[in-house]
Design a protein that fits this description.
The chain has 141 residues and is of the alpha+beta class. The protein folds into two domains: 5-45, Orthogonal Bundle (Arc Repressor Mutant, subunit A), CATH 1.10.10; 61-132, 2-Layer Sandwich (Alpha-Beta Plaits), CATH 3.30.70.920. Helices cover 38% and strands 21% of the residues. It has five helices and four strands, in the order αααβαββαβ. A hairpin with a 6-residue loop joins β2 and β3 (100-106). α2 crosses α3. The longest helix is centred in the first third of the chain and has 13 residues, at 33-45.
Length: 141
């Protein structure tokens, strides 16, 4: 699906507030509520929008974890295994010195450490680098 400027505006608003009513979005960008509804439905059905979520202020340990794997390992298979942890919110296969980047959101530093210890024991993992996230900033599409 090709994303046009109108879709980008809708996505920008939804990224900031996924519960924003379609009628409010329509008013802000100058289109009908039906246009917003059909665009959101289309983006959802075609995988541009993968879900709607909420963020709470109750997290205690959020980190970006860089993972380097063995050259003979299947990167997609290892990435998939990382999603077995409910605290692993996002997994990216990347280029550069690392192979995979994880976004981990745990309820405590102790739980984050347990997850990291388990990940490091995986046969294909050579090393990890953990960066605690101190502050988040969200932008529009």
């Amino acid at each position: 699906m090709q994303i046009d400027n109108l879709d980008k505006q809708i996505l920008g608003i939804l990224k900031k507030d996924s519960r924003c009513p379609f009628v409010d979005i329509a008013e802000r960008i100058g289109v009908s509520e039906g246009t917003v509804r059909s665009r959101v439905h289309k983006m959802s059905s075609e995988g541009v929008i993968k879900g709607f979520t909420i963020r709470t202020g109750s997290r205690n340990a959020k980190a970006l974890v860089e993972v380097r794997i063995d050259v003979n390992a299947d990167t997609s298979e290892v990435a998939g295994r990382m999603l077995a942890f409910p605290e692993v919110k996002e997994v990216f296969e990347v280029t550069g010195d690392q192979d995979i980047i994880l976004i981990v959101d745990a309820d405590s530093t102790q739980r984050l450490n347990e997850i990291l210890d388990t990940i490091r024991r995986h046969d294909s993992i050579l090393n990890t680098y953990t960066h605690f996230i101190l502050k988040e900033h969200f932008g529009s599409a």
